[in-house]
Design brief:
- Strand 7 (about 245) and strand 8 form a beta hairpin.
- It is elongated and about 160 Å long.
- The protein has helices at about 1-20, 30-40, 40-60, 115-180, 185-220, 260-280, 340-405, 415-445, and strands at about 25, 65-75, 80-85, 90-95, 95-110, 230, 245, 250-255, 290-310, 315-335.
- The chain has about 450 residues and is of the alpha+beta class.
- The longest helix has about 70 residues, at about 115-180.
């Protein structure tokens, strides 16, 4: 019990400190921008796109000739090459001998492997871009959810503050009436009880507002110490940006097209990649042909010897070998027999292609259900907003009538308090319905792939 009390006191102290900090007014557009700038997953997705671009450049470089250089220094002991008694001795001196060369290799035909590698690299870049778009859309959906929840809680706080003012005005009115014996102490007690209930709800809503602000700050990556004040607080427009058509007698119906959804495009690219992999494995049956050109230069290779003449004189022999030699050749490689390994690789690639096609069919069915559910949620939310707006109008009118009747002693305190409770509930229902509609709209745009990132 002590731990619970300590935690509550700590939470209350933290929330009070947060409320004392300077606030930062932010629009929904600002929150989206900050989230895209500060989110680690988006940064990782951006890095993945850049790496995919580099992979594509690396794959294209395989078409170009490769130039390599080499340099070799030799340090060996002298080698006796020829020894004819006391007449002639010849040695090969390799200390300090070096060889330098340059090689140029140009692939002429490699069975379509270079084309397949470039196509796979292009598909990989598209996959990384769609993966980034998917990450950004999910992040924006999370931002919208947290933002509209914060707006809804703030609206409830304002509504409860207005409700508390109404109760205080009613209390003052009944207190004056009780002073002239036109109301009873029981009426005052009932109003006080209601005021305590409203005060509890208000404090709870304020705590919820601060917690929602912390949740939003966590998503967009801003300072927790600065409470967020949402500036987009109007719920007047209902799905004006959504593509729709009118149905006969069924109200507003939304499009169920999800062809631009990143999840679908990702799996479609996977199918294309597997098709390329099948062709790539088949290319292992084909010959490869490359043109190789080289030039090498050697120096400081010495032949040294001594020749003894019949006259008794000796003649020294010393010769340094140096020079360069260019050459060019065609290298052809033809696979003949690998115990069926290449055929099995092709079969395996075809099975992977079949798996990706089946996954695509399954994903399309599940997406169709998900999109239809999102459309139904938006449609139902629109109707809920209309119903809640009508209920609010009726509650406002009912409260006005009941207040007049109470002032004229035509209804009881119970009737008036019930009317005020209905007024509170009607406004709360409208706030929740409007916020939920906005959240459903964002979710609909996400599942159909139409949620604009920028």
């Amino acid at each position: 019990m002590k731990k619970i009390i300590t935690a509550l006191v700590f939470s209350a102290a933290t929330l009070s400190q947060l409320s004392a900090q300077p606030s930062q007014p932010l629009s929904l557009k600002d929150c989206r921008r900050l989230a895209l700038e500060n989110n680690e997953q988006v940064m990782t997705a951006n890095n993945a796109v850049e790496k995919a671009k580099l992979d594509r450049q690396i794959a294209f470089a395989q078409y170009l000739p490769k130039v390599d250089g080499s340099f070799t220094m030799i340090q060996l002991q002298n080698q006796d090459l020829l020894d004819i008694g006391d007449v002639l001795g010849l040695q090969l001196q390799t200390r300090g001998t070096y060889l330098a060369g340059i090689n140029v290799t140009l692939p002429l035909y490699v069975g379509g492997q270079l084309t397949a590698a470039n196509r796979l690299a292009a598909i990989g870049q598209k996959v990384s871009e769609e993966q980034r778009r998917k990450t950004e859309m999910q992040l924006i959906a999370d931002v919208d959810n947290a933002y509209y929840q914060l707006i809804a809680v703030r609206a409830k706080v304002q509504m409860l503050e207005a409700y508390a003012q109404q109760m205080q005005g009613l209390y003052d009115q009944v207190k004056l009436a009780a002073g002239v014996q036109m109301a009873t102490e029981n009426d005052l007690l009932r109003i006080t009880t209601k005021q305590n209930e409203v005060s509890y709800q208000l404090q709870k809503a304020r705590n919820g507002e601060q917690l929602c602000g912390l949740a939003l700050a966590n998503i967009i990556g801003t300072d927790f110490e600065q409470p967020i004040i949402p500036t987009d607080t109007a719920f007047t427009q209902v799905t004006t940006s959504l593509p729709h058509r009118e149905g006969s007698g069924e109200g507003l119906l939304l499009s169920e097209d999800f062809s631009s959804r990143p999840d679908l495009l990702l799996l479609q690219q996977q199918v294309k990649a597997n098709e390329v992999l099948v062709k790539k494995e088949r290319s292992n049956y084909l010959p490869t042909l490359a043109l190789i050109g080289s030039y090498s230069y050697h120096d400081n290779l010495k032949l040294k010897g001594e020749l003894n003449l019949p006259s008794g004189r000796s003649l020294d022999y010393n010769h340094t070998i140096r020079g360069g030699s260019p050459y060019a050749m065609l290298a052809l490689k033809l696979p003949i027999f690998h115990w069926g390994a290449e055929l099995k690789k092709v079969k395996k690639a075809k099975l992977s292609l079949s798996d990706s096609q089946l996954q695509l069919q399954q994903l399309e069915r599940s997406m169709r259900v998900e999109v239809r559910r999102a459309v139904q949620n938006v449609t139902d939310a629109q109707r809920m907003v209309e119903t809640a707006a009508l209920g609010r109008q009726q509650a406002d009118e009912n409260l006005r009538v009941m207040r007049q009747k109470y002032d004229n002693q035509l209804c009881t305190m119970t009737d008036l308090l019930d009317a005020q409770s209905q007024w509170q509930q009607a406004r709360s229902n409208l706030i929740e319905a409007q916020a939920q509609l906005k959240i459903y709209e964002t979710e609909y745009l996400r599942v159909t792939g139409r949620l604009q990132v920028q």
